[in-house]
């Protein structure tokens, strides 16, 4: 059974039709590349799954159960985690504070609860170690490299037992070595049965980690194929419109 | 040479001392201490109990408001209405008491008025999405005008049956007997005690509560805070309510200190309060600020003001000194940040 199912999802902003009846199904441990030109609707689709936007039409099912998200927190409670394009980090906070942002660990009794710094530092350190990242939980994000920032954003998704991870251009602004690290991490998520939606412009990334590729063009799904059954040339053609549909 | 991840991760970026030295608040504190030291040598009057008592009481009002202002500034906002809010709260408290109600009712009425101001400010800023500068600039005008309307633009000096109680609260002092062995038989002025308590509460809230963590997150990257599920709107509303409430508390204390209220009370005070917060390390771009900094910033301004008077320098120079301090404090911070990024 599909872990995440989108049925005929549409979204319009006023007169602009951003998404037009998109249907996608994700299996456990499946990595799907979501590709398309700028303005094709990739980010809008991710924001709908993540609970940032309401779809204008259509239905989302998680594990077969229809769901509706009014806030990002509700998507998160349903096992959906997002790594945003700009990583959604606060430069003025520590790595650990960013990992736990919005779900801080607290201790104390009743209404009098204080932040449990030690617990958060400890857990964040564990997560960074799992990711094999040289990231110090107590360092400010402001002082970090692109790869470390990425690790902080990805460590967030590992806090809970997420079943679905959405990644919006995770490899857009980092070095070649760090790209390899991120791709390795995606493979590790896959091994643990996490379904990953990878939005990317980079053909080599998609073809090295994804099982399937979905192509959007002007808000419509024009292809949904196993990686083995397509080629970078065909996908490029689909993105630009040189190939109408496949 | 390569080192293991564990070694790299366990290394600290800053020692405790270098971390301390990197803070603007620390240098402002040094400036404060040096000024006090120099003034104790330069003037016979400065270090007397009576003068220090006055200094402490005077900066308490600005300090209390700077705590609330710092919370607002940390989120990346600004509250220009605090001077007018202080006046409105003072007028409401004094007129309620003048109408024969008890001191408790008077204080509650004044604080309620200030909370109402904060709710309007915060509601428009957080939920309607208006810029804080515009909303609180409007409120600066509205709150003072309301104070004029309520009081019919008259001086309020009839404080009713509980007049002595409020004057003891705002103008009196505590722990005189306890401190007399140390040569401070006058005790600690009550407004300074209120400041001390509120500063401890604010310092605790900034560092140890989820609310504190979230105001820094909003100031650092509001979008990220929203995306990670921080209740951004509610938190933004809360900081304007806190700021207005602090102004209300200062207003109530001023009623007691002055014994009468005019509608000019607190005019221009918002600038002093913002100056104190900024000198204390609050960054107007959001994401930085401390409760201790707010207190030390207000203290420094008052000590400079007091020193100039004692040294016989014309009071017209006060603005120049305070203004230069604002610029220098922020400049030092900029230089430090530039060095760090290189």
TrEMBL record, chain A:
PROSITE patterns: ABC_TRANSPORTER_2. Residues 4-243 form the ABC transporter domain. It holds the Pfam family ABC_tran. One of its GO terms (molecular function) is ATP hydrolysis activity. The keyword Ribonucleoprotein does not apply. InterPro entries: AAA+_ATPase (IPR003593), ABC_carbohydrate_import_ATPase (IPR050107), ABC_transporter-like_ATP-bd (IPR003439), P-loop_NTPase (IPR027417). Keywords: ATP-binding, Nucleotide-binding, Sugar transport, Transport. SUPFAM superfamilies: P-loop containing nucleoside triphosphate hydrolases. This is Simple sugar transport system ATP-binding protein. The lineage of its organism: Bacteria, Pseudomonadati, Pseudomonadota, Alphaproteobacteria, Hyphomicrobiales.
Automatic annotation (TrEMBL), chain B:
Its main location: membrane. CDD domains: TM_PBP1_transp_AraH_like. GO terms for molecular function: transmembrane transporter activity. Pfam families: BPD_transp_2 (PF02653). GO terms for cellular component: plasma membrane. Keywords: Cell inner membrane, Cell membrane, Membrane, Transmembrane, Transmembrane helix, Transport. It is found in: Cell membrane. It comes from the Bacteria. It is a multi-pass membrane protein. The chain crosses the membrane at residues 26-47, 59-92, 188-206, 237-259, 271-296, 308-332. This is Ribose transport system permease protein. It comes from Prosthecomicrobium pneumaticum. The lineage of its organism: Bacteria, Pseudomonadati, Pseudomonadota, Alphaproteobacteria, Hyphomicrobiales.
